[in-house]
Amino acid sequence: MVNIEGYTGGAAKTLVEAGANVGDKIRLSVEGRVVVGRLMPRVGSSSDILTIKLDNGYNIGVKSSKCKIEAVYPGSPSEHTSVRGETQKAGLIRGDGYVSLVSTGGTIASRVEYETGAVKPALSASELIQMVPELDEYARVRTRVLMSILSENMRPALWSEIAHAVYEEVGGGSDGVVVATGTDTMGYTAAALSFALKGVGVPIVLVGAQRSSDRPSSDAYTNLVNAVSFAKSGAARGVFVCMHSGVSDGESMVIEGVRVRKLHTSMRSAFQPVNAAPYAFVSGKSISYVHPPGTRGVDELDFKPNFSEDVSLIYFYPGVTPRKIRSMTEGSKGVVIGGTGLGHVASDLTDTLSELIRSGCHVFMTSQCLWGRVNMNVYTTGRRLLEVGVVPLEDMLMETAYVKLSWAVANFEWEKVPSVMRSNLVGEISERSVLTTQVHRSEGWT
Description:
Elements: H1 9-18, E1 25-30, E2 33-39, E3 49-53, E4 59-63, E5 67-73, H2 85-88, E6 98-105, E7 110-113, E8 118-121, H3 125-131, E9 140-149, H4 156-171, E10 176-180, H5 186-196, E11 197-198, E12 203-207, H6 220-233, E13 238-244, E14 252-256, E15 260-262, E16 271-273, E17 280-283, E18 286-289, E19 302-303, E20 311-315, H7 322-328, E21 334-339, H8 350-358, E22 362-367, H9 380-388, E23 391-392, H10 398-411, H11 417-422
């Protein structure tokens, strides 16, 4: 069966004459140079371009009119199908190398719309596998398309859907679950799954890309391979993010889901741990742990997948008035404030927050600073906020605190929410914060 997905015109003619299919490795002679790589599905309007994935993971485009296919090395049958039949079979058992890939969208599951230059969600989980056939070397992968959205369209109700899907995959016998999702809100989603799946006994690994899968400089290849490798290892337990660690093309950093933040808009190494060390570094089948694997999340799975949208995250800035606070918190059952420094807001907001608390809304304080922890006992403003009932949240990231509050309000009785928020459940609070900046291997993590 011929499969030249997306190819037309001269490119299709060249492939048919050579007997090449999508997924095959091919050897081409291009103006005196030899190129060897995997033939990928074609996206775009040009009818003369072959898309080839090199061994280093980069994609290149080659004009079919200027090349000659010298040899074809057939791929496995699974590389020619959109749905990999082997991984869909029943009877896969834990320990058998079976990893679930749940796709929710984002850049990793997107392609460039070449007519406009925009990136749009266009790939299914199975197509992601097809674009990275090397995953066969790491695990059998079962794919599941849950949704196809970009980061900015994520919301609490969808966290619940993802949590249910992951729970089903774990219950079905998966050694680990990889969730392909958008990077802009990945930290929120990672925190949500961390609380919803507290005590999960296998690795849950969120992965994404800063550049879409069909771009030559895409990081999707490395991130996905390393995420599957880490998930398949089964040594760690809990929820993690796996993204590029630095300038290296081959290495990814694994970070705990409640300690991660996107710190750059476009760099491949945008994701970094905050107030924590990295969990591990992954390069293919090589995994180097910073934390001893299995030291967290080893309790029995406590599945609480509900999230509330009746909570707010407020970033304090000079000029916030009592009227703005009232407007931003209308209808909220809980509020997280990203305060300045050690946990402060303007003094004239104290009475407004006091009124809010007396009305039945829980108010919690975090810091806008990335590193360090809240200490509201140092200055008068902080002490006054404590007196009216504002609850400090130590060194918890403000985004993690917002997600935790959404989860706590939805799953616990109102009077228990402050106690839940102050408790360290999945590593979101530490006794002593770890000072980290941009982390690379060269900085001493081993």
